[in-house]
Design brief:
With 587 residues, the protein is mostly beta strands. It is built from 5 helices and 38 strands. Helices cover 7% and strands 21% of the residues. The longest helix is centred in the N-terminal third of the chain and has 13 residues. The structure holds 2-acetamido-2-deoxy-beta-D-glucopyranose (NAG) (6 copies).
Length: 587
């Protein structure tokens, strides 16, 4: 009723063609019919209700009530109801007739995993388009040049859909996540140079496609670009110098490509003043980290991991007062850690693993009051012992000091850390046994269960269970530990991953280990464990990763899940072991 009155009113005030309640513009109708014709299956049922001629009333279609033209098409794969979100399917191909909708401002077909075809070459006809969502489809082929004609475009989302929010908990221990990537788009070819004409672009997301070639030299012309994601493609060449001109940029993800050359920014103070999130990891970038890096004063999270960066960590890092996460692992960085790192008072995570950094560690690191994760593994640190401040940092709960040349016993200072330890990796060091004095007084009851006092030399029993109640990850592999695995390990109730492989631990596998109901990963290979696999281990229902190979185990592998589900290789190298998955026992 109200609408009819408005129509009457409009016919008096505007041109007669402005009021089109019945029917819709012939081009729009033809375009939508053509789009529907390309889809042969729609589980959401939305397209089945597209009947008659008044396309403005169709589900997912929005018209401008003045011109009567279709301005928005929303048919996303993810549908939200009041209670839950579900994914609907549309099987078919994207008909080029969608480009007949020349007044279109928003086209959202994101997350329709069954939508195939290409981005139509005629996409440039959609001159009014502001937002284009074609992520998470099965689209292939090049991104057409004509996309550069969409001069009003503000958001372009052509990435795949990784469903990252939907992974089940506990999946973190699994390394082979690739299998969970669903039906990604695989756009191929180069990023058209015409992109530089999209001067209203604010969001540009092309991640996880198969794009090749260089990043367009003139990308810096996108002056209002805020978020820029080209990660996980096959882009080559250098990062264009013009990125220095991206004055509005706050998120720049160029990681997981094959980019080379030096990091060309920032060239002057005040450039990229809002850059907060920078990912350049997994490329082939070389040269030094620019000495000016500290000019990027808004940086919060930075990853330069797994490149070929060399030279020292610049001392200008101390300007990065907003920095909370810094990933520099897997490069060829050398020299010592600059004292100025102690000024990064907001730092939560520092990872410099797998570089050529030398010791000693600066005492100034003890000022990192918010540091929760410290990873210095596999450097030339030659630490000999763990610095005292490591135990005194009030927030530190994840400590990775593998391959740091730590010698002797597991140090006393881990008995009483300022913060409960959740993850501890001291693998690939020179740790040996020996009972610290504090251990005897603190945990006398543990020793009663040991049968052979002369084998108290195991390093594991020295860990104070007081501060380790929250321990989820313990890696002491590749050390020189001998003796027995103490039953006290069963008190580490939160443990999910236990790796004691490549030591000289012996005696029977402790039954009490079966009490660790959260255990997902158990690596005991390459030790001298003897006896049978305790039948209690069948209680380890969450076990996803097991390796007992190359020990001296005997007898039948307890029958049933989860043990029988593991491949033979988890049990081989134990000459006396038999039963599923190995060959049957001889009775
Ligand atoms: C027409 O569209 C404008 C802007 O979208 C809106 O504010 C107005 O309420 C609409 N009028 C009718 C009658 O739907
Ligand atoms: C940008 O647009 C102008 C004007 O339409 C055109 O002449 C030019 O070739 C375009 N640039 C690129 C790189 O496509
Ligand atoms: C950055 O922009 C300025 C003017 O806006 C221009 O003169 C300069 O050439 C641009 N730099 C690069 C590297 O594109
Ligand atoms: C590391 O320490 C050992 C002694 O523990 C010493 O022999 C060696 O030269 C040191 N290496 C470096 C690179 O400082
Ligand atoms: C334990 O550390 C070793 C050597 O540092 C590494 O190879 C292994 O993957 C780690 N184990 C787990 C379960 O992360
Ligand atoms: C393991 O659990 C059993 C009961 O399931 C209990 O009797 C035993 O004391 C526990 N062992 C340890 C070391 O916690």
């Amino acid at each position: 009723m109200g609408c009819q009155m408005l129509c009457l009113f409009l016919t008096f005030t505007l041109m007669a063609t402005t009021c089109i309640v019945q029917g819709c513009h012939p081009a729009d109708l033809k375009g939508l019919a053509g789009f529907r014709g390309g889809i042969h299956m729609d589980t959401s049922g939305r397209l089945a209700k597209w009947a008659g001629l008044s396309c403005c009333t169709w589900q997912g279609v929005v018209c401008n009530n003045r011109t009567g033209r279709v301005t928005e098409v929303h048919l996303p794969g993810f549908l939200a109801t009041a209670d839950f979100v579900f994914q609907s399917q549309m099987e078919g191909w994207l008909s080029p007739s969608i480009t007949l909708l020349t007044s279109l401002e928003v086209l959202d077909l994101g997350g329709l995993v069954g939508l195939s075809g290409r981005i139509p070459k005629s996409i440039g006809h959609l001159k009014n388009l502001k937002k284009l969502f074609l992520y998470g489809n099965k689209l292939r082929g090049p991104v057409p040049d004509s996309i550069g004609k969409l001069s009003k475009l503000e958001e372009l989302h052509l990435h795949e859909n990784r469903l990252s929010g939907y992974l089940p908990p506990g999946v973190g221990c699994l390394k082979n996540l690739n299998a969970l990537l669903l039906h990604s788009n695989r756009f191929t070819g180069r990023i058209p140079a015409s992109f530089s004409n999209l001067t209203n672009l604010i969001y540009l997301d092309l991640h996880s496609n198969s794009l090749t070639g260089n990043i367009p030299e003139n990308i810096g012309e996108l002056q209002v670009l805020k978020e820029f994601d080209l990660s996980e493609n096959f882009l080559t060449g250098k990062i264009p110098v013009s990125v220095n001109n991206l004055t509005s940029i706050s998120v720049m993800y160029l990681d997981s490509n094959q980019l080379e050359g030096e990091i060309p920014f920032p060239s002057n103070y005040g450039e990229m003043p809002m850059l907060g999130f920078l990912r350049l990891q997994n490329n082939r970038l070389s040269g030094k980290i620019p000495p000016n890096f500290g000019y990027l004063v808004s940086l919060q999270r930075v990853s330069l991991e797994n490149n070929k960066l060399e030279g020292a960590i610049p001392s200008s890092f101390d300007n990065l007062q907003a920095l909370s996460e810094l990933y520099l692992g897997g490069n060829e960085l050398s020299g010592v850690i600059p004292k100025s790192i102690g000024q990064l008072s907001r730092l939560i995570l520092l990872s410099i693993s797998r570089n050529l950094i030398q010791g000693p560690l600066p005492d100034e690191m003890s000022a990192l009051q918010n540091l929760q994760t410290l990873d210095l593994s596999f450097n030339s640190l030659n630490l000999s012992s763990i610095p005292r401040w490591v135990a005194e940092l009030p927030s530190l709960s994840r400590i990775f000091l593998a391959g740091c040349g730590i010698e002797g016993r597991i140090p006393d200072l881990l008995r009483s850390t300022a913060s409960p330890i959740q993850e501890l990796d001291l693998s690939a060091n020179y740790l040996t046994g020996g009972i610290p004095v504090w251990m005897e007084s603190l945990t006398l009851q543990f020793f009663e269960s040991f049968k052979e006092p002369s084998h108290f030399t195991s390093g594991i029993e020295q860990i104070g269970v007081v501060t380790l109640k929250r321990l989820e990850y313990l890696n002491l592999s590749h050390n020189l530990q001998e003796g027995q695995l103490p039953t006290s390990v069963a008190k580490l109730k939160a443990l999910k991953c236990l790796d004691l492989s490549y030591n000289k631990l012996g005696f029977g596998l402790v039954e009490a280990l079966a009490n660790l109901s959260n255990l997902e990963t158990l690596k005991l290979q390459r030790n001298h464990f003897t006896g049978k696999i305790p039948v209690e281990y069948l209680k380890l229902k969450n076990l996803k990763d097991l390796d007992l190979s190359d020990n001296l185990l005997v007898g039948e592998i307890p029958a049933g899940k989860p043990l029988s589900d593991f491949p033979q290789s988890c049990f081989t190298g134990n000459r006396g072991l038999c039963g599923k998955p190995l060959s049957p026992c001889k009775s």
